[in-house]
Amino acid sequence: MKTIYLIRHGQTLFNQQKKIQGFCDSPLTELGREQAIIAKKHIEELGMVFDDAYCSTSERAVDTLELITDTPYTRVKDLREWNFGRLEAEGEHLNPPLPYRDFFVQFGGEDEFDFRGRISKAIMNIVTNSNGENIIIVSHGAAIAQFYRVWEDYSEVKRQRKIQNCSIFKYHFADNEFVLQEIINHDFSEIE
Fold first, then answer.
1. Mind listing the pLDDT tens digit for each residue in 41-87?
2. Superfamily of domain 2-184
3. What is the 3-state secondary structure (H, E, C) of 158-174?
4. What is the reported pLDDT for 134?
5. For the chain, which residues score pLDDT lower than 70?
6. 95 known ligand binder
7. Which residues contact 125 (CB under 8 A, 6 or more apart)?
8. At 37, is the secondary structure helix, strand, or coil?
9. Which residues lie across from 80 on neighbouring strands?
10. Residue 21 counted as an annotated binding residue
């Protein structure tokens, strides 16, 4: 059995400015860096040690991973966030109500089910090809949400709220199935 720690990046400039951020990128804010450091401390307190590390090619994911662990890592393009097409870097007020489904296709973006398939395939490839037992993957909020939806029926815990920056989704992987064991949300009250 393998354990996968799927983590969302820290807060970014576009998160702070309420801008749509998928394939486009913006740097971590000071708060985002502090969130990653708190996540690192939490990981160390729990005694988590990673055999393998992976992240999206987006700067915000790379920087978060480098703040959390010194484990050598591989960047994986298919771990990137949803492609929102021409709505990238525009205000979040332009998002339609959930679920988005194929809304972004008209703007040159990605269909929800294509995105879900891309993320799921990328994580499955990483986990099945890794020799490690404890794997850390840093990705994005919508990416983690889509992966969660694929395996929701197998989960031992249910997601109750929006995916927090630097939250950790702990999955066990055996017999080609991902089972969500725990969602770790950090206390950022001292830095917010």
1. 999 999 999 999 999 999 999 999 999 999 999 999 999 999 999 99
2. Phosphoglycerate mutase-like (3.40.50.1240)
3. CCCCCCCCCCEEEEEEE
4. 97
5. none
6. no
7. none
8. helix
9. none
10. no
The residues, ordered by sequence, that sit 6+ positions from 173 with a Cβ below 8 Å of its Cβ are 1, 2, 3, 4, 127, 179
Count of CB atoms within 10 A of residue 118's CB? 19
Domain boundaries in the chain? 2-184
Does 11 count as an annotated binding residue?
A: yes
- 8 annotated binding-site participant: yes
Residue 60's pLDDT is what? 98
Distance in angstroms (rounded) separating the CA atoms of residues 35 and 166: 6
Flag whether 14 is marked binding: yes
Rounded Cα gap, residues 135 and 120, in angstroms: 15
75 marked ligand binding residue: no
* pLDDT value at residue 189: 84
- Do the annotations mark residue 172 as ligand-binding? no
